[in-house]
Design goal:
By secondary structure, the chain is mainly alpha-helical. It has 2 domains: 1-106, Aminohydrolase, N-terminal nucleophile (Ntn) domain (Glutamine Phosphoribosylpyrophosphate, subunit 1, domain 1); 137-191, no CATH class. The chain has 6 helices and 3 strands.
Length: 192
């Protein structure tokens, strides 16, 4: 893209043929923006979550135009995050313009906000460090829940002892991180 303004950027996204995805914008003047772009059907009398009759009552009424999809320009926070979290702006009419129903867990977004909200300026090196950040918000929450717990079962107590004092980072050589990930995946799989 060779857009020089946010309006040119959005114009270049018209007709994007995939399901809606995140696109970010920055220019040499320090402006930043985000726009969803893609093929999002207008469904006037249903949401697309369940199969419906093919008798014509549930036909699409075209697709949402680029200027009808969500966008943000120069947000007050001074940064934009896109980590598959539910990121529709508060004023976006999402009940009318249904784009998606499933979003990624918010933890990556929360961690990015945590890091960026404490910075006035962010360098390329800071961005690289954040891209490779391995702090786990779910692990932090687990550590709080485990405080003061003990068990008469030797294996359980060994696991509790292993996690005591852990810094909730998912380093590749961390036995605590391995234990947390096994627990987290098993916990997540049993909820389905």
């Amino acid at each position: 893209m060779r857009a020089r303004t946010f309006d040119e950027f959005k114009k270049s996204l018209e007709g994007w043929g995939t399901p809606p995805i995140n696109h970010v914008y920055a220019d040499v003047k320090g402006n930043i923006g985000w726009a969803a772009a893609g093929f999002a059907p207008i469904r006037p009398n249903w949401d697309g979550l369940l199969p419906v009759s093919g008798d014509g009552r549930y036909e699409w009424a075209g697709r949402w135009k680029q200027n009808e999809l969500p966008q943000i320009y120069n947000p007050a926070a001074g940064y934009i995050t896109t980590s598959n979290e539910m990121n529709l702006p508060p004023d976006y009419p999402y009940k009318e313009r249904k784009l998606a129903f499933e979003w990624g867990v918010p933890f990556r977004h929360q961690r990015i906000v945590e890091v960026l909200s404490g910075e006035n300026r962010v360098s390329v090196e800071d961005s690289m460090k954040l891209q490779n950040d391995v702090v786990s918000i779910p692990a932090r929450r687990l550590m709080v829940l485990l405080q003061g717990l003990s068990s008469e079962d030797a294996s359980t107590q060994a696991a509790l002892n292993l996690l005591k004092g852990w810094n909730a980072t998912l380093d590749g050589d961390s036995p605590q991180a391995a234990l947390h990930e096994v627990w987290w995946r098993r916990r997540s799989n049993t909820r389905c």
